[in-house]
């Protein structure tokens, strides 16, 4: 049932660039987020910390993205709750 489907896009490592404030995909992510209430974009906090050290500045995320503590922690929690994990 599409009304009960929930999708979380969890990014870490190089995938973090997908959700940065200067992402070339910003408009598309905004469109997707605005048209799908059950779609969330989540960035790994550990990856953000590592990137901040490399960049010398905190990572700024798109307004439609949220920071989570750790990608692997979120994924394992969701799988334990019965969610399906798809890696790309």
Q: How would you sum up this structure, described in words?
A:
This protein is α/β, with parallel strands linked by helices and 88 residues long. It is 35% helix and 17% strand. The protein has three helices and three strands; from the N terminus they run βαβαβα. It has helices at 26-35, 45-55, 71-80, and strands spanning 7-11, 39-44, 65-68. Strands 1-2-3 form a three-stranded parallel beta sheet, with helices on both faces. The model has no long low-confidence stretch (mean pLDDT 94).
Number of discrete helical segments: 3
Structural class estimated from helices and strands = alpha/beta
Distance between the termini: 24 Å
Order of helices and strands: EHEHEH
Summed over residues and divided by their number, the pLDDT gives a mean of 94
Strand coverage percent: 15-25%
Helix content: 25-40%
**DSSP, total strands:** 3
The coarse overall form would be flat
Main sheet: strands, sense, barrel: 3 strands, parallel
Radius of gyration: 13 Å
Stretches where pLDDT falls below 50 for ≥5 residues?
none
**Which strand order does the major sheet show?**
1-2-3
């Amino acid at each position: 049932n599409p009304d009960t489907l929930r999708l979380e896009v969890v990014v870490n490592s190089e995938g973090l660039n997908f959700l940065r404030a200067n992402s070339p995909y910003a408009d598309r992510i905004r469109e997707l987020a605005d048209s799908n209430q059950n779609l969330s974009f989540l960035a790994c906090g550990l990856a953000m910390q590592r990137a901040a050290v490399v960049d010398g500045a905190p990572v700024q995320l798109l307004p439609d993205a949220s920071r989570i503590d750790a990608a692997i922690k979120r994924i394992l929690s969701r799988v334990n709750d019965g969610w399906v994990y798809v890696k790309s």
